[in-house]
Design a protein that fits this description.
193 residues; mainly alpha; 7 helices; 2 strands; 80% helix; globular
């Protein structure tokens, strides 16, 4: 049997390595710097989780783009949507802690956990991928999970914009600037997905 993954991935190897592994290396160095400089504060730990999930997604994605093993592509494709959901939720958590200047209440952490559960359940039960299309070397995602992921992404972006807007209005000039800068950076960063 002809492995079509090799034919479809060989054109993307070089660009995929640069577009994925360079950001992973930079993010890793940034996390180490932040953790060392902040003496492992809550904010730096949340940032490390947020960045770590982003790096995990990038590594899984680059392996999918550059590998020609059907089984490995399928195995790594399956959890990427769940990692993406977690990545967005940690972005919201990170932003909330920056804006508040303190940790969020436990009931808000419970909401974040509850929001992640449907994606987690679909992933661990093996339902995140419905089939694998060998001629184009792509998995066919669970439609509900794809739409759920998109809904979480939109909700997180809306949360960052609305929460940031209302907190910026209530804050002083310095706080407004900080909220606007971090909020804008997060929104721009997250919209690339």
């Amino acid at each position: 049997m002809l492995n079509t993954c090799f034919a479809t991935t060989q054109d993307y190897h070089t660009i995929a390595y640069y577009s994925h592994l360079v950001p992973v290396a930079i993010a890793f160095l940034l996390v180490i710097f932040v953790l060392v400089q902040s003496k492992r504060s809550l904010l730096s730990q949340i940032f490390a989780w947020f960045t770590g999930l982003f790096c995990l997604w990038l590594i899984g994605d680059v392996i999918i783009w550059t590998n020609n093993d059907y089984h490995l592509v399928t195995a790594l494709w399956a959890p990427l949507d769940y990692i993406n959901v977690l990545f967005y939720l940690f972005a919201a958590y990170f932003f909330a802690v920056i804006v508040r200047g303190d940790d969020i209440p436990n009931w808000q952490k419970a909401i974040i956990l509850i929001i992640s559960l449907p994606a987690w359940w679909i992933t661990i039960t093996g339902q995140s991928i419905l089939a694998f299309n060998q001629p184009v070397c792509e998995a066919l995602n669970n439609t509900f999970l794809t739409q759920y992921k998109l809904g979480v992404e939109i909700a997180v972006l809306a949360y960052i914009m609305l929460f940031g807007f209302f907190k910026a209005i209530a804050g002083d000039k310095t706080k407004r600037k900080q909220i606007a800068l971090v909020g804008l950076a997060l929104v721009l960063f997250l919209t690339i997905f």
